[in-house]
Design goal:
Distance between the termini: 32 Å
Strand content: 5-15%
Structural class: alpha/beta
Largest sheet: 6 strands, parallel
Order of helices and strands: EHEEEHEHEHHEHHEHHEEHHHHEHHEEHH
Number of helices: 17
Strand order of the largest sheet: 5-2-1-6-7-8
Shape: elongated
Helix content: 25-40%
């Protein structure tokens, strides 16, 4: 994506995550902020006065402060968009229009521009003006209804899957539209309307496939797989481990590996669907057997015999595991105040990519305005207004 300029008119999570991904793929990202800055700058916890939430999501970007309530600020935004390939925004539907950046306005400002809008419920429709956060779309989409302990209440997924999935779909859509635009000789641009709600429905593909075609209404089943067993956590003498059999072909090998070969031909467990029917009994038998040895014993046997398995790690154990370094899990940046900060890395970015720290508020305002042709006097005037 070298040579692609992205104007980032987003805040908090869904939009900034999308533009961070684009930056790690080589795009130049210019983050446009109000004089008060992105709300995420005030989100704890802080390290040396810097929000870790903001710092993680806004690496590799330049920050320009523009007062978009003023005519001069809006003109500067339009001049910036003239130079851009992509605009990403996650404001409430209608706000972009009031900034002079409606779909029709953008065609006049830059006919080759690709505009991606992320919102809770899309730019049009009866729900478009409703405010939305991750937990709202998780609830409304049905996501919470399939998550939680077996037989327990609906539960929010433990990370902001509504925001992150919308960011991922938006990134894919931007790349597709850039490809089509350039394949057509550089134009025209296009718009992309991404709703967090629709993205959650897409993530629930299996749940909807089962309901729409078989009438099955999924509910919370803890860490179990709805259609396969064994495929869940099991206790051992010291800690729980996860075992996941991908198909019935693994069943005889699994039984032999853990020292229960008689289960392989037991009519209650021999076939996939029958085994699901007797799942609770199977869990009881496996749990009682696996508790006799520590997790290291079982994991060694299972790995040796190519049975998918793992200890249940936490963030601390993952970060300290040499495997995370081998797989380039984290990125190190130089903090603005000195020292270093570490964050997760885009897994499809070049492992050798060096990221820059998230910018301070308005850090690059003067240089970006100068790039747009503003004189020093005009820059000073705008800085005074901001």
């Amino acid at each position: 994506m070298k040579g692609v300029r992205v104007v980032d008119l987003t805040s908090v999570l869904s939009g900034p995550f999308c533009t961070w991904l684009l930056s790690t793929l080589g795009a130049e990202v210019i983050k446009v902020e109000s004089p008060k800055g992105d709300l995420a700058r005030g989100t704890p916890p802080f390290e040396d006065g810097i929000s870790l939430y903001f710092a993680s999501l806004n690496r590799n970007k330049r920050s320009i402060v523009l007062d978009l309530k003023s005519e001069g600020g809006r003109r500067a935004l339009h001049r910036l968009l003239e130079t851009a390939d992509v605009l990403v925004e996650n404001m409430r539907p209608g706000v972009r229009d009031r900034l002079g950046c409606s779909d029709e306005d953008l065609k006049k400002i830059n006919p080759n521009l690709i505009c991606a809008s992320i919102s809770g419920f899309g730019q049009k429709g009866s729900l478009s003006q409703r405010p939305a956060y991750d937990i709202v779309v998780q609830a409304m989409s049905g996501m919470m209804s399939v998550n939680g302990p077996l037989g327990g209440p609906p539960t929010r997924v433990g990370y902001s899957v509504g925001d992150i999935s919308a960011a991922l779909f938006t990134t894919i859509g931007i790349l597709q539209r850039l490809y089509e635009r350039d394949a057509n000789g550089g134009g025209p641009g296009s718009t992309l309307d991404v709703s967090m709600l629709a993205c959650q429905w897409a993530c629930l593909e299996n749940a909807f496939a089962r309901y729409l075609n078989a009438g099955i209404v999924p509910g919370p089943i803890g860490s179990r797989h709805p259609s396969i067993t064994p495929f869940e956590p099991y206790p051992t003498a010291d800690q729980d481990i996860v075992i996941g059999l991908g198909s019935g072909q693994d069943w005889p090998n699994f039984c032999e590996t853990i020292g229960l070969p008689e289960l392989s031909d037991d009519p209650r467990f021999a076939e996939d669907e029958v085994r699901l029917t007797h799942r609770d009994l199977l869990d009881e038998i496996l749990g009682r057997h696996l508790k006799q040895k520590p997790s290291a014993h079982w994991l060694a046997l299972l790995i040796e015999n190519e049975i998918p398995c793992s200890a249940i790690e936490n963030v601390e154990s993952v970060a300290s595991n040499p495997i995370s370094a081998e797989y380039h899990a984290f990125s190190t940046v130089n903090a603005p105040g000195g020292g270093e900060m570490r964050f997760v890395r885009n897994p499809i970015a070049d492992p050798g990519e060096v990221e820059s720290a998230a910018p301070t508020l308005g850090q690059h305002t003067s240089e970006i305005l100068a790039e747009l042709g503003y004189t020093q006097d005009e820059i000073e005037e705008m800085l005074g207004q901001a």
